[in-house]
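Annex B. Sample input.
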Amino acid sequence: MHLTHLACTLCGQTHDAFVPQNVSTCCSKPLFAHYDLAAAARTLTKDALRTREKSLWRYREVLPVKSESDIVTLGEGWTPLLPAPRLGAKHGLKKLFIKDEAQNPTASFKARGMTTAVSMAKQFGLTKLAVPSAGNAAGALAAYAARAGMEAHIFMPRDTPRANIIECEQMGAHVTLINGLITDCGAEVAKRKAGEGWFDVSTLKEPYRAEGKKTLGYELAEQLNWTLPDTILYPTGGGTGLIGMWKAFDEMEKLGWIGSARPKMFTVQATGCQPIVRAFKSGEKFAAEHVGAQTKASGLRVPKAIGDFIMLDALRKSGGGAIAVRDEEMISCTKEVGAAEGVFTAPEGAACYAAMKQLLAANVVHSEETVVLFNTSTGLKYLECYGSE
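Annex B, continued. Sample output.
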């Protein structure tokens, strides 16, 4: 373990990495974990990775947990990067891939963040964790907290997909349904956490979920033989996955594994909840809350993201952008992807395919490029979205 300190993502002020932390005390913004990468590089090598376990913990030296005994794992990470030849041929793309995060424990990418967050909570001796969630983060926390013998206190909008609610209940979590959005759930956690003795593991309101998510970037590079794709399309609610990958690319360059070139990063949101899209198009540093947010893709129903400025900076520096997709397009694209490639995507994953079509039509993505679409969960958790024919 080569963790050295935490730093505020807005002003850079350092914070202690060896006590529980939420947001920065200086700016109330997310904290990033920093490592002694020179020391990590002595054992974390491309050759060493060839014989390591097929999980995200293969990148152990750039993950924060001190002791192996504190790692809380269900076998997360190292999900397949699936070639999508039929969809690619349909659009003239020779190198189209789907990174299928549905093959994680709890069937979503949220397992990546919760394994590191819950492991650090165990290291710190915490016993009660709380999270507001649109669904998949709740299921992941319920699973990892149960694995660690901790209490999970979960707050979800009442209209969260039923599968997510059942999942949490069956893993022993304390589930509260709120009439409102994830922001209302977050407000409830904030109001009660001190009195209840909970530690808040909300998206980017603790430093270590991003560390698990960054392994997406490490895996992409390794699975593409230490190159990066030309274009990445990522569905964005809170944005930790996109932010984590951007952090990983910087770390890998410092490790000497990749050069300075970066993929064009595109965030994909729903037309009914598109705060990052609006802020990107208007040139803003921060994104205003999307009032009255509505979308069937519950993971995209995040009207205000604390990491907005980090996402927007990455999108601009990468030469990428932000795209909004209608719910109807997501649902129809779910079937198009499934029928062509055998992957039953979540609506959020299908949104990336719909967004790719827009980029191709605008001549922003070209036929010779390597393009990666992220499917963040399984469509089985969203059955309410799909009518029988």
